[in-house]
Amino acid sequence: MHEEEVINEFVVGNCVVQPSARAILVGNVPAKLGARAFDVLMALYARRSRIVTKNELLSLVWPNLIVEENNLQVHISALRKVLGPLSIATIPGHGYRFTAEIAGAKTPPASALPIPETQPVSGNLPASASTLIGREADLAALCEMVIAHRLTTIIGAGGIGKTRLAHTVALTQRAAFTDGAWLVELAQVSDPSMIPAAVAQALGASLLGKRDPRDELMSALQHRKLLLIIDNCEHLVGAVSVFVQGVRNQAPGVHVLITSQELLKLEGEQVYRLSPLVLPTSDGLAAAKASGAVTLFVERVRALRPGFSLTPENAGDIREICLQLDGLPLAIELAAARVPLLGAAGVRERLNERFRVLTGGARDAPRRHQALSETLDWSHSLLNDNERAVMRRAAVFVGGFGLELAQQVLSGAHMDEWAVLDHLGTLVDKSLIVADQTEPPRYRLLESTRIYALAKLREAGERDASATRNRHALAVLAHFEAAYQRKLIETRDAQLQRYLPDIDNLRAALDWARNSSDPGLQIALTGASAWIWVGAGHRAEGLRHCDQAMMRINATIPPEIEARMHLARAQVRVQSGVHEFSDDDVASVARSVTLYRAIGDRQLLTHALSVSSVLLAIRGDFKASAQLIDEVSECLDPSWPLAARWYSLAARNNYLYHSGSYADGALVAEECRALAVALGDRQLLILALGFLMRHLMQRGDYAQAVERGKELTEILRNVRFGNVGVAAFVFADYAAALTQQGALDAALTATREAVAKEVEVGTLWEQLNAIALLAFKRGRIEAAAQAMGRFDAMVNAHPRTKISLSGQRIRKEVHALLAHAIPAEALARLNALGATLSDDEAARLALDA
What we know:
single chain, 40 helices
């Protein structure tokens, strides 16, 4: 081991590990464990502070030997049986880690190899390579690696551009090798015993047949200094590993560059995992031009249609093509080849049939590179049955997945949860599943691979496909049930960070549940996950899911699931900034109160009472609202988590605001602020400061409101997650306070930010009176009159929406200013014209320079 330490003995559960005796005692009885398994344990123990890759373990336990990876898996399994299943964790795509609670660790120093001197050129490569697009950083990194190390492997998915990059690296660096750079193409070699002959043929060497072909070839290479590029090794990876190890042992002057979808897993192998081309990070021409994927697409189209270029008109289509194809060079080139016939827009429209459209590659390319489906067929053919099952089941995930979901969804009747991790790791090793370098680890299929795998799932039969999708929905439900249970002990930021990566899986699960015969699955999943839509900025989508689930409630739904659904829908509406609630809304949340009373869950009852109080106060039923708030105060238990107090404080704040008790409301808002600080919850702090600013606005204390607005908007501009409804009213109130203070330029900036958020929430019309006042003060008097015409028309159309005291004051002020500035007949005409505008048109008219 490279990370040596003196170890007398250590304890794992009921096991005592004795390194000096090379024994594990279980209750004073030596466990039956092989010598290699013990070596695996000690290698992992010595490196317990980090993940140990499979390749590293193989080289530590079997130095200078070529062994199958299955041997390692057998010994890991044996160790888990003795030490417990949680003693060693499998990290798919990364390796293994000793996870028993043992202190201390060491980290070995890094080392480097010398760089050889530059020499003349020779080899079998062409004089020059085709232009390499979007790979400048990859090329620079690999050029250094092939000089510094004797074995470098470029690994990546089929069609990602490994071969072209390797050719360019070899051409760039061949002068550094006395005997040049030589390319060996193995794609057409199916017999492992023919590898020496293929290499000899590429080198122009003769094998006389007097000795073993490998021995004769090694003799020919023994004194040569060259770069050997072995291309497309994944189908012969075991045999190539044996051959390359022989080269390294017997030909010290030979450096080897491998391209493969899978590692050789040799000691000292330097791995370069090739990523897709850089994709546009935003809309617009500038972002498209900076993208390697877009550049490749445009260049390949231009080769077929001279004069083609990236323009504002086609940039959106090209960007979407590259995004849908995940920046995969082969897929992009095949898509570009269709542009002369279909146009960029036509290719984009047909990408849902990509395996029919993306054909017709270069005639001199390997067959598997002439159609995207053939590339994936090649990769799929190299898998065993269990690996194929895991791959096709993984297709039900959308947007990636973590280990917990993987174990629940990918397992089956003949494959347990632990075997899933090993097969998942193999698929990562074979570049069919991408392991994102995140903590905790997440995995994903590139979209084209996912579509291919979905087809394989359908081919496997309706039973397997339905069972997999149902397991996926149940796993996502369990995932969000856990979030719901932690809502009082985790901050909103922490919950969003943990669960937002799975929002696309949630969408897929909800789609499946909505079409299933089990309404309980849809209702349970919707109720458990409803909170995420507002925080993610998808209020309308969240309400749609809630409404769809509410329609399927019937007598078979368990009371706790029905109660949560009613409460979840009401809370989504309240947190979205909705200010208009129907009798049905009030009845729905009242139903949750009734159910929680019957169930006897006091904590959730206080939550439901608080939300019900908010709806009643917004509708102006202050007596009923106050009664519910008093009941909440009686229910609160000091032993509950501190966050449980938030709902009662927020409800009381809401009641005081809508009933006009702004001074008392400001005091409650300060309590909310103190609670948010104590909890360390930035999302609640934003709400509390928003409450406080609103009370200050209503009291006419614009100076203090501006100070709170500055603090709040700074937080909102830098927060990763946020409630769009809250942000909308914060920016709107801040803009109104600035307008009253006469800071018109700052008010204009804040108003424009507010408008963008109000449009998303759907409450822009409620701010048109403040927008009209700002327009008037900026000298846009006729625009102000039209904005007020729209505002007045919307007030009449929404009689249940209560205009705040501050809003009423602004409305009265603007009417007075307009009446003084414009003759009555002209004012009436402008008001009538404004009433015909949309909210967005009225706002833009008032805010334009």
